[in-house]
Write a structure and sequence with these properties.
The complex is a heterodimer of chains A (about 280) and B (about 475). Chain A is an alpha/beta fold. Chain A is built from 9 helices and 17 strands. Helix content of chain A is about 30%, strand content about 30%. The C terminus of chain A is likely disordered. In chain B, the strands form 4 sheets. Chain B has a 5-stranded parallel β-sheet. In chain B, helix 6 packs across helix 9 and helix 10 runs parallel beside helix 19. In chain B, about 50% of the residues are buried. Classes of the chains: A alpha/beta (about 280), B alpha/beta (about 475). At the A-B interface, helix 1, strand 8, strand 15, helix 8 and helix 9 of A face strand 5 and helix 14 of B. The site of one flavin-adenine dinucleotide (FAD) has 41 residues of chain B, from helix 10, helix 15, helix 17, helix 18 and helix 19. One iron/sulfur cluster (SF4) binds next to helix 4 and helix 5 of chain B.
Chain lengths: ~280, ~475
């Protein structure tokens, strides 16, 4: 059992949890994730480790409610226990001094970007970050990202806060203004990661994205998490989660992630039915 | 035994094990055979002529004293029989069910020369089930702690065997398992209807009651490394990390939704209980037309699992002919009774998807058998121009697995061969790294439960010796 020690609501249906897992806290590096299972009937789902606190023995995760498991997690709070937490999984982000590193986070993707921005900063990079959300209410980690970066740009799709538009527009502006960018990391919804990669490709800027396929074991046993990168099969849980964004077959990943749409909807309807009044406005 | 009695005994017909009716069982995940009744077991046990030089013992990789335990059964001493077996085999309820007996102990049984061999596996299963169901599982007396600690990587049959043997020798053992349940392939791979999971769990409970410490959710290499174990109080480490990533055919469309590796499909259904969806949260695509690619036991398990999820049709696509099917004959037979179709001498060329990226058909080509290859089997070759399509919305690729790379990656001084399998001294299980032992599928590639256990036994003896003498 892994105890939740703290819960904070960061935005509508987006929560930060601190979970007691001292060994994982000590071992984890930026870019790695855990797989957790809430209860005996639960699904195994992967979530990025955003931060850790060695003294308290906790790891921090940030979750957006998108389906049954994340919604059930969203209903949990400090003092509740999670049945299984395994990690740290995946390869850590490759960190070096690239000169200028641009960190792009879209929506919930800002959560996995934060530890990478911090690690890049620590390695001596000038860190320029761009974070975006659909609207102001959905923006997360602005303060933390500001602290981790030399410069921070904020965008919202609807213009309710920061730049009106997409994160890629800011990225394009930086390139157009002649910024010598050594490295870009982009994490967020798949179309956003594809757009970031398309933006940097003509300039041949090394761009890493963090892929989020459906996983089962997360330890390199089942083959569920395969994606095509550079024309070859790669297994995200052991070869990733980060890959060269210019080589990823995004269309395939999007389609594969829709494999269980029918079942996911059914699970969610059943949950909402059992929980009665709880309302999901997505 | 006097010759007259021997003759009498040889007249007793092999006892038939009652089974669930195929039409019924294909709608559920309950075990297919019911097991012998006490009367049947005693009758079957009488078929053994108690050879002075029993060939069967040599056919069993862990050399169970087969005539002895069978005699105990024939005398109605079922619990004693179970104890006898457990002297050599810690998981009899498992092995009695999943051992390929026809290639091991029963293959060489003398009775089999003229008629049907004694059903050693079924008798083993009966004794173990009897002991468990009658609450007579005995915890052996353990010697005083030796002062040494051993860590075991992986709670599959190899690791569990090492753990059980070492606590019996007086050492403290901690098993680290990556998944949320102990048992390895016994839990995530072999289906419930062949090996009920509660049996595996009761074996695990037994080890725990003997004092084996099992830590779940611990991926060795990621959380702690072997070197850390060795410098943090563990005197030896056994690596039983089993198989790794599944192989794919690298043909077009293999990543369409609906194309599974057997490991994923079986893990979803067995470990995550997807057959109970939506009560269990993990889904699996049930499909209308399911095609399994491959001809081994994993393919057969996948196909028979698929049948139980009630699609219209399940078929096996295999590139050689029926004679070459590597799966156990019993499983092929069970599959056919349950309605499984075979498309032999057929090989997939590409997976075809619909506009949403979901599998809708598989393009295949007919094969014929040519000259024998290195394995001695006739090599299948394509019949030019014989391409055709099969409708399928679920495909399960069951063509094998690579070696699990996690430990070699994080402990580079453990030597591996060109396939990534850990190399060991076969008599001792010792690896190239001092204090580190290994066995089971990570050493052998895909093998069997009993061979993994045999490796575990040898390694436990060698670990014990190393702990006592310090000599590597
Ligand atoms: C390496 C990695 C890191 C991730 N980090 C985060 C994070 O920090 N915060 C966060 O909110 N989300 C993260 N995700 C996504 C998160 O795992 C999914 O949102 C979650 O699994 C959805 O489960 P559900 O039951 O709530 O939703 P469902 O209704 O089951 O599914 C909703 C969508 O989530 C995806 N999904 C479903 N099941 C799985 C699964 N077993 N594994 C992966 N994806 C699945 C599918 O694309 C699906 O369309 C990460 C994913 C990966 C692979
Ligand atoms: C579908 C299927 C059906 C089969 N049917 C039969 C059969 O009928 N009869 C038969 O005899 N054999 C059968 N086999 C083969 C048999 O199951 C294997 O040979 C046997 O399980 C090997 O045992 P093992 O202990 O070496 O490894 P495994 O059973 O693979 O166990 C390895 C364990 O180690 C864990 N692990 C891996 N890496 C780490 C790590 N870094 N840290 C911690 N834990 C780790 C894994 O999660 C796993 O639990 C079958 C195999 C499959 C896949
Ligand atoms: S363990 Fe397997 S090989 Fe040995 S006696 Fe039992 S069934 Fe036969
Ligand atoms: S070989 Fe057959 S008959 Fe002889 S002891 Fe073994 S089981 Fe009995
Ligand atoms: S999730 Fe199973 S191999 Fe990656």
């Amino acid at each position: 059992m892994y105890e939740i020690t703290e819960k904070v609501e960061l935005a509508h249906t987006v929560y930060l949890f601190k979970i007691k897992a001292p060994l994982i806290a000590r071992k984890r590096k930026a870019g790695q994730f855990v797989v957790l299972r809430l209860n005996e009937h639960g699904e195994r789902i992967p979530l990025t480790i955003v931060d850790s606190d060695n003294a308290a023995g906790t790891i921090t995760i940030i979750v957006q409610e998108v389906g049954k498991t994340t919604a059930m997690l969203g209903d949990m709070g400090a003092g509740d226990n999670i049945l299984d937490v395994v990690g740290p999984l995946g390869r850590p982000t490759h960190i070096e001094n690239f000169g200028v590193a641009v960190c792009v986070g879209g929506g919930i993707g800002t959560a996995p970007v934060l530890p990478i921005a911090r690690a890049l900063k620590e390695a001596g990079n000038k860190v320029v970050s761009i974070i975006g959300a659909r609207n102001k209410g959905l923006l997360i980690l602005e303060k933390e990202m500001r602290e981790a970066s030399d410069t921070l740009y904020v965008t919202t799709d609807d213009g309710s806060y920061g730049h009106h538009g997409f994160v890629t527009q800011v990225l394009q502006n930086l390139i157009d203004e002649g910024m010598k960018i050594g490295f870009v990391v982009g994490i967020g919804p798949i179309p956003m990661m594809r757009a970031v990669s398309n933006t940097t490709k003509p300039y041949d800027i090394l761009t890493m994205v963090s892929l989020n396929p459906i996983m089962v074991d997360g330890t390199g046993m089942c083959g569920a998490c395969r994606v095509t990168v550079g024309g070859k099969n790669q297994f995200v849980c052991v070869d990733g989660p980060e890959f060269n964004g210019h080589e990823v077959n995004y269309e395939e990943l999007i389609l594969r992630n829709r494999s269980y749409m029918k079942e996911e909807k059914m699970a969610m309807e059943e949950l909402t039915y059992h929980e009665g009044a709880k309302c999901y406005d997505k | 035994m006097d010759p007259k009695e021997t003759k009498e005994r040889m007249k007793i017909p092999k006892q038939v094990m009652p089974e669930q009716d195929p039409g019924e069982r294909v709608k559920n995940f309950f075990e297919v055979p019911y097991g012998y009744t006490a009367e049947q077991a005693m009758e079957e046990a009488k078929r053994c002529i108690q050879c002075k030089k029993p060939l069967c013992v040599g056919g069993c990789p862990v050399n169970i004293d087969i005539p002895w335990f069978i005699r105990l059964i024939s005398e109605g001493k079922f619990v004693e029989a179970a104890h006898k077996i457990k002297e050599s085999n810690g998981l009899p309820a498992v092995c009695g069910r999943v051992c390929p007996q026809e290639d091991q102990c029963e293959k060489v049984c003398i009775i089999g020369k003229k008629g049907e061999p004694v059903s050693i596996g079924r008798l083993e299963r009966f004794a173990a089930d009897y002991e468990r169901e009658h609450g007579e599982v005995r915890i052996p007396e353990l010697p005083k702690w030796s002062g040494k600690k051993v860590s075991v990587v992986g709670a599959g049959p190899a690791g569990l065997t090492v753990a059980g043997d070492l606590v019996k020798k007086g050492h403290k053992v901690t098993v680290f398992e990556a998944l949320h349940t102990a048992g390895g392939v016994l839990m995530y791979g072999i289906p419930e209807f062949r090996l009920p999971k509660k049996i595996v769990q009761s074996e695990v409970e037994y080890l725990k009651r003997m004092g084996v410490d099992i830590v779940l959710n611990s991926v060795v290499g990621k959380l702690e490394t072997i070197d850390e174990f060795l410098s943090n109080g563990y005197s030896a480490v056994f690596v039983g990390s089993g198989a790794g990533l599944p192989y794919f055919m690298n043909i077009p469309g293999e990543n369409l939704a609906g194309v599974y590796a057997a490991n994923e499909y079986l893990t979803r259904v067995n470990l995550m209980k997807a057959y109970q969806f939506p009560e269990a949260d993990t889904p699996v695509i049930r499909g209308r037309k399911v095609v399994v690619i491959g001809g081994g036991n994993t393919a057969m398990d996948s196909a028979r699992t698929a049948l139980r999820l009630c699609p219209e049709e399940v078929s096996i696509v295999y590139r050689r002919s029926r004679e070459e099917l590597p799966a156990r004959v019993e499983e092929i037979h069970h599959g056919e009774e349950e309605g499984l179709k075979f498309r032999l001498l057929t090989n997939p060329k590409k997976f075809i998807g619909d506009k949403d990226g979901r599998l809708k058909a598989i393009e295949c080509v007919r094969m014929e058998l040519g000259e024998p290859d290195e394995s001695g089997r006739r090599r299948p070759v394509e019949v030019k121009g014989s391409e055709f399509c099969i409708d399928a919305d679920v495909a399960i690729v069951a063509i094998g697995n690579g070696a699990n790379p996690l430990i070699p990656q994080t402990t580079p001084d453990i030597k591996v061969n060109k396939w990534g399998n850990i190399t060991v001294n076969p008599d001792t299980g010792r690896t190239s790294k001092r204090g580190v032992f290994s066995g089971g599928d990570i050493v052998r590639g895909g093998a069997t439960v009993i061979l993994a256990m045999g490796d575990g036994k040898k390694a436990a003896d060698s670990i014990d010796e190393y702990l006592k003498t310090g000599v590597w």
